[in-house]
Amino acid sequence: MKLLRINENDNVAVALDDIKEGESLSVSGIDVTALDDIQRGHKISLFDIKAGENIIKYGFPIASAKEDIKAGKWVHTHNAKTNLSEESDYTYDHKTYPDIKTNDRTFEGFVREDGRAAVRNDIWIIPTVGCVNSVAEKMVKDNQDLVKGTVTGLYTFPHPFGCSQMGDDLATTKRVLTGLVNHPNAGAVLVLALGCENLTLSMFQEALGSWNSDRVKFLVCQESEDEFSDARKLLEELSSYAGKFERKTLPASELVIGMKCGGSDGLSGITANPTVGSFSDRLIGLGGTTILTEVPEMFGAEKALFDRALDEGVFKKAADMANNFKHYFTSHNQVVYENPSPGNKAGGITTLEDKSLGCVQKGGTAQIVDVKEYACPVEKKGLNLLSGPGNDLVSATNLTAAGAHIILFTTGRGTPFGAPAPTVKLSTNTALFEKKHAWIDFNCGGIAEGKETVAEAGERLLDYVMEVASGKLTKAEEQGFREISILKDGVVL
User: Fold this and answer.
1) In terms of C-beta distances under 8 Å and separation of at least 24 residues, what long-range contacts does 232-236 make, across chains too?
2) Average pLDDT, the chain
3) Which single residue of 342, 391, 400, 425 has CA 20 to 30 Å from 291?
4) Are residues 32 and 126 in the same domain?
């Protein structure tokens, strides 16, 4: 099978393999002859499409034709354009879909003193300001001997912020860093401050709220004669505390899983993203929690997504989230639809609608139970939306700060990075899986090859996530790739 027509209303199909000009093809009972060479992941017109008519994929308009397009022509940026504008009115037409049932799953995780589950038992050093990044990195290097017993690692996450910031930017930095301190995968945390930064330690502690003094320690470098020896003593105490936790069997319902995509291609919305959506529905059916973010990659697909809001209140929060993000674009004199990257376009994604309708496949069919602001912890079991941009590192940090134990990251072109939370890379195609075996954990390419269904891949992914939750290292973890990036919008002093 060389073509896939995703929805019976589509007037384009997606090439599952490279197609040569003149090749005769058939899909859904429609015969068509290719009038161009068409690369895998790109679109071919199934019918004549007149200039100005909508191009339909996933059953929704993804663009309008710039010119008359004959059946068999390659459909892409040269002959199609977005229908999006900066203004949108959203209406709520509540839709529900059948729950997906699956066999019970368990994992071997940790239980914190507050009752939350964890899938790692790390010690984290959290710098409150970029000035102490190198100090924190030396502390990690010098104290690796404290990673013993059930402690799974000692890590720090450098960033450039915490000083010379004001207003929303300072609040954002504070929210992300306190979210990391409170993350259950951190069995113990050393908060490392300089002493003169805008994000003062007292301000940080106030935002942190209550904390267990055995689990969280603080060190201000300017107040210490030798911050390295002082850190050693504190880290020894933290290692002793974290080492008391042991893995035990826990139900899948305790898991919180973040979902995002990056380096997408024309197969993302056909293989990897629907696989994650199938996984999400299955985990939610078991009582678990998933988080979908990347608001700009919902533009053009809001109707398909927001109609699954649990009630009018959740729908309004979702609509406000989208409109606020559009205002974020326009307030910076940017258009909302200039999103697909050069790599996305090379992979077959034509417009933001095309990208978004594929992107939201990661949300499956479950009801949206809540909508959260950037880096705010999720509180309700089920599918949550999280406000934030699509940038890979910013988005993965956002999901981690919101409480995701594990992040599922789909990609058609590949990327090596990892978040503080274990980051599972899923390839949209087998060629990428085979080429970048040091990056990719899970292959969804078999769907395009007819070797498995989306449902089968979703079940397989559910099993794989249980392995990662039980301690199996992701490829990024094996490489030691753990990074954060914090959203910045305003003035730097």
Assistant:
1) 232/142, 232/143, 234/190, 235/123, 235/139, 235/143, 235/146, 235/154, 235/190, 236/146
2) 95
3) 342
4) no
Domain boundary among 217, 244, 271: 244
* 339 or 175, higher pLDDT: 175
**Claim to verify: residue 52 and residue 158 sit in the same structural domain:** no
pLDDT value for 1: 79
Q: Is residue 51 part of a domain?
A: yes
Say if residue 419 is in the same domain as residue 273.
Answer: yes
List the end-to-end C-alpha distance of the chain, in Å, as a whole number.
58
Is 99 part of any domain? no
Summarize the chain as % helix, strand, coil (round to 5): 30, 20, 45
pLDDT interval class at 347 (50, 70, 90): confident
pLDDT of 340 higher than 80: no
Q: pLDDT at position 86, please?
A: 66
CA 438 – CA 445 distance, rounded (Å) = 17
Please give the backbone phi and psi of residue 485, each rounded to the nearest 5 degrees, phi first.
Answer: -145, 130
272 and 332 in a common domain: yes
Instruction: Report the predicted TM-score, pTM, of the whole model to 2 decimal places.
Output: 0.93
Query: Which residues 6+ apart lie within 8 Å of 235 measured at CB?
Result: 123, 139, 143, 146, 154, 190
Q: What is the pLDDT of residues 35-69, one digit of tens each?
A: 999 999 999 999 999 999 999 999 989 999 999 99
Structural domain total, the chain: 3
219 and 264 co-located in one domain: no
Instruction: Give tens-digit pLDDT for 251-297.
Output: 999 999 999 999 888 899 999 999 999 999 999 999 999 999 999 99
Say which DSSP state 360 is in.
G
Closest by CA to 369, choosing from 319, 324, 317, is 317
Domain boundary among 57, 81, 105: 81
Is the same domain home to 370 and 449? Answer: yes
Distance, CA of 141 to CA of 131 (rounded, Å): 18
292-308 mean pLDDT: 92
Amino acid at 435: K
Examine the pLDDT at 245 and tell me if it is beyond 70.
Answer: yes
Q: Is 332 exposed, middle or buried (0-12, 13-18, 19+ CB in 10 A)?
A: exposed
Which structural domain, as residue segments, surrounds residue 170? 122-244
Question: 119 near 150, Cβ under 8 Å?
Answer: no
Which are the contacts of 468, defined by CB distance < 8 A and separation ≥ 6?
Answer: 119, 406, 422, 424, 474
Q: Count CB atoms within 10 A of the CB of residue 145.
A: 9
- Give the residue from 118, 120, 124, 122 showing the smallest Cα distance to 153: 122
**Domain presence at residue 256:** yes
Is residue 308 over pLDDT 90? yes
Phi, psi of 292 (to 5 degrees): -115, 130
